[in-house]
Structure formats: C-alpha cells, structure tokens
Amino acid sequence: MAEVYNAASLLFTQGIRERNNDQDGSALTGGGRASAWDSQNRLVTCAYSSNTSSYVYGADGIRRRSSVNGMTTFPNFPKFPRPLSGARSQKTQDEEPGT
C-alpha cells in the first residue's frame, strides 16, 4: 500500500484513502474515522463506522470521563493520602526556626 506524506511530513494518503489533519497535525479524517480536538490538542470525539467515542478532561489535563456509544466510564486514579485540615507538614530541624 503506497503512502504519501505532505510537506509537514504528515501522512496524506494511504492507498486510495485520503487523510486530513488540523494545523497542529492532529488527524481529522482518515481511515474511516472522523476526529475532533480541543484547544489543548486533546481528543474530544472520534467516530468510526457506527461507533462514537467522546472524552472529557479536567482542568489539569487528565482525562476524567470516556463515553463510547453512550456508555460512560470513569478512569480509576490512585488515591493519595491528603493531610487532615489544619495539619502541618513535617519539617526538618534546619527548617524550624528556634529549634
């Protein structure tokens, strides 16, 4: 299967299938897929055949929710211990004034 690349070295055609990319180089169409990206260049939706996937990200950029054909999943994140309200972090003797 012949592959042709454009001036930006992005895959333009693969065999008889044409591919289109946005200005950031993210694939918009090609290989039977249509994708949309947000302003942070993160995948927001992807449609392929009769399947549609969508993604939601938190302010920190981490994917928080995925939906495929209406079935939503939430990734499992490790749970880190948080200090109790009002708790002080432990400091070394050099960091504590007067000790």
Structure description:
There is one protein chain. The protein has 99 residues and is mainly beta. The chain has a domain at 25-76. Helix content is 0%, strand content 42%. The protein contains no helices and 10 strands. The protein has strands spanning 3-5, 11-14, 17-18, 20-21, 27-30, 33-37, 43-48, 51-57, 63-68, 71-73. The strands form 2 sheets. It has a 7-stranded antiparallel sheet, with no helix packed on it. Strands 1-2-3 form a 3-stranded antiparallel sheet, with no helix packed on it. Strand 7 and strand 8 form a beta hairpin. It starts with a strand and ends in a 26-residue tail after the last strand. The relative contact order is 0.09. Mean pLDDT is 76; it is low at 91-99.
Fold topology:
Layout: E1 3-5, E2 11-14, E3 17-18, E4 20-21, E5 27-30, E6 33-37, E7 43-48, E8 51-57, E9 63-68, E10 71-73
Antiparallel strand pairs: 1-2, 2-3, 4-5, 5-6, 6-7, 7-8, 8-9, 9-10
Helix content: under 10%
Total number of beta strands: 10
Rg for CA atoms: 23 Å
Mean pLDDT value: 76
**N-to-C SSE string, H for helix and E for strand:** EEEEEEEEEE
Number of helices: 0
Summarize this structure as a short list of keywords or feature phrases.
about 100 residues, mainly beta, 7-stranded antiparallel sheet, 3-stranded antiparallel sheet, about 0% helix, about 40% strand, globular, disordered C terminus
What's the quick description here?
The chain is an all-beta fold and 99 residues long. It is 0% helix and 42% strand. The protein has a seven-stranded antiparallel β-sheet, with no helix packed on it. It has a three-stranded antiparallel β-sheet with strand order 1-2-3, with no helix packed on it.
